[in-house]
Design brief:
Length: about 350
């Protein structure tokens, strides 16, 4: 998109989103939830509250939704009841329209962070201990395959951004996402974004197709913004075939649940694979699971770091907790990771 056209879209969207412009400009607000023209909520410091803001009518809200979709190269049609898009500043948008949305069109906007956080910032905010931050930094340098797991709005993407900042500048990084969110700071980054097919079922490309393409683009690292389906199997196989140091996120509440989710998503690939063989691949591929959560008071933080240590005699995952909040690291594993990161640097 040309600079002039991008500016035109930005001005148009600013006009169409005027009713919520104050929320989008407020750095304290992390998410804007529009449940209808006169029902608008905002999340601030992890707390959701209803605002007095409103759109003029349902037509004004629909115009804003169409403008957002058009900016992302997508169309809001009766056949496309749900779509993901983004704003000019990179904020992620999800739109659902009737009849899927029973009360009418609704929009959720996950705001793009204007300032890039670091692991040190997470330590300052109390989301991570200093020792855990150092351990994770060493793990990235040691090319460990890491899955960040948590619920919606727990801070998975933020933590993945912080971890990706530890990747050395000289490495070529390929990023694959449904909707671009990651803000990598390195120079040599190739960002790939899935595209839905047009109304004729053509021109689209899926996460799985992008992943397969990325393997032929000489990546040093592959980052998958979020594993949601059959691409999990492609990622697992890549992790075990020379593409170490991969990072991704997954929706799950515990490290064991994360591994179970990876199983289910891998089976969605359509590839017939015995469960024992699939578990062996997952146990070999994933080195660390970083569990993050949003607490009842709105705080977000890492609740556990676990190491995957293969399978037991019953073909069950062996998962060992390394960190709990306030705990130190298991010394042997920290030393091992530090040694590997030093070897990698040399």
């Amino acid at each position: 998109m040309s600079t002039a056209l991008h500016s035109l879209f930005e001005e148009t969207l600013s006009y169409l989103l005027a009713p919520v412009r104050s929320l989008l400009a407020d750095e304290r607000v992390s998410e804007v939830m529009i449940n209808g023209p006169d029902e608008i909520y905002a999340e601030q410091a992890g707390r959701i509250s209803r605002t007095e803001l409103r759109f003029a009518d349902a037509g004004a809200l629909e115009a804003a939704a169409r403008g957002i979709a058009q900016f992302s190269g997508k169309r809001l049609t009766p056949e496309q009841l749900s779509l993901e898009a983004r704003l000019p500043d990179g904020s992620r948008v999800h739109i659902v329209q009737a009849p899927a949305a029973r009360k009418g069109l609704c929009i959720a906007i996950r705001k793009f962070a204007r300032s890039r956080l670091s692991l040190g910032d997470l330590v300052t905010r109390g989301a991570l201990t200093e020792e855990a931050a150092g351990f994770l930094s060493d793990a990235v340098l040691a090319r460990k395959n890491i899955i960040v797991s948590g619920g919606t709005g727990s801070g998975k993407t933020t933590l993945l951004n912080c971890l990706s900042a530890q990747i050395p500048e000289y490495e070529r990084i390929l990023v694959i996402e449904d909707t671009s969110e990651l803000q990598l700071q390195q120079e040599h980054v190739v960002q790939l974004e899935a595209q839905a097919p047009d109304r004729f079922g053509e021109s689209g490309i899926s996460i799985r197709e992008l992943f397969r393409a990325s393997l032929r683009m000489r990546p040093d690292r592959i980052l998958v913004g979020e594993c949601r389906g059959g691409e999990a199997l492609d990622m697992i196989q890549a992790m075990t075939s020379g593409h170490s140091g991969s990072l991704s996120t997954c929706h799950a509440d515990t490290p064991h649940d994360t591994l179970a989710r990876l199983e289910v998503m891998s089976l969605m690939s359509g590839v017939e694979l015995p469960l024992a063989a699939l578990r062996a691949q997952i146990a070999s591929a994933v080195h660390l699971i970083v569990q993050i959560a949003r607490h009842s008071d709105g705080r977000r933080g890492v609740t556990e770091i676990a190491a995957v240590e293969g399978l037991d005699e019953h073909a069950r995952y062996r998962v060992r907790t390394i960190f709990h909040p306030g705990d130190g690291a298991h010394a042997a594993l920290v030393r091992s990771t530090e040694n590997e990161s030093r070897q990698h640097k040399s």
